[in-house]
Automatic annotation (TrEMBL):
One of its GO terms (biological process) is aromatic amino acid family biosynthetic process. Binds 1 Mg(2+) ion per subunit. CDD domains: SK. ATP binds at residues 12-17, 117. Keywords: Amino-acid biosynthesis, Aromatic amino acid biosynthesis, ATP-binding, Cytoplasm, Kinase, Magnesium, Metal-binding, Nucleotide-binding, Transferase. Mg(2+) binds at residue 16. It is found in: Cytoplasm. The gene is aroK. PANTHER family: SHIKIMATE KINASE (PTHR21087), SHIKIMATE KINASE 1, CHLOROPLASTIC (PTHR21087:SF16). This is Shikimate kinase.
């Protein structure tokens, strides 16, 4: 693996899960941005949103992303909204960016009932995720070096595809 790899996509795409599999397969560090924000602040993302609001979360997310994306040989799993922050989009330029493209219906089935994603407190999860994909899809497409269909169950196969493409990319 020559370049750092960033995983982007809406909630439920499997960025966190595939990130873990991929980093283990490559034998490199994993940084899950949401987990790192929570670790640094000592509270959950839901708490940050509820107490300080989304803008405060986006600022913390940006700090962690920009720093992580500057590291060598790392797998970075971003939160779904991160690429919409201009400083993060800029930082994504130097790395191998993978859009895990999932359908809203599959994503909804994966995140239903978890309650730890404050933007998904919505009665109609499929509609909400469809709106998110509509708002973000063009940005994901613009930033992506690789697009991986993330609807299927086989996280290992997806990690293998990403590892091969990252190996080949310069
Ligand atoms: N390819 C997959 N097949 C089946 N379940 C998956 C897959 N990818 C993720 N999941 C499950 O879906 C949920 C959301 O995955 P996660 O990795 O947290 O997504 P993201 O970080 O993109 O929001 C988790 O419970 C995870 O175990
Ligand atoms: O879509 C978003 O804006 C968000 C997605 C979440 O990450 P996942 O994509 O891992 O769910 C997390 O960063 C936060 O709740 C905001
Ligand atoms: Mg995640």
């Amino acid at each position: 693996m020559s370049r750092t790899i960033a995983l982007i996509g809406i909630s439920g795409a499997g960025k966190s899960k595939i990130g873990r599999t991929l980093a283990a397969r490559l034998g490199v560090d994993l940084l899950d941005v949401d987990a790192e924000v929570e670790r640094r602040q000592g509270r959950t993302i839901a708490d940050i949103f509820a107490t300080d609001g989304e803008a405060a979360f986006r600022a913390a997310e940006s700090d962690v992303c920009v720093e992580a994306l500057g590291r060598p040989r790392t797998v970075v799993s971003l939160g779904g909204g991160a690429p919409m922050t201009p400083a993060i989009a800029d930082a994504l330029r130097g790395v191998h960016v993978v859009w895990l493209r999932v359908s809203p219906a599959v994503a909804a089935s994966r995140v239903a009932g978890h309650g730890d994603r404050p933007l998904l407190n919505d009665d109609d999860l499929v509609a909400k995720l469809t709106r998110m994909l509509d708002a973000r899809g063009a940005t994901y497409a613009r930033l992506a070096d690789q697009i991986v269909d993330a609807d299927g169950d086989d996280a290992d196969a997806k990690a293998q595809l990403i590892a091969a493409a990252a190996e080949a990319s310069v």
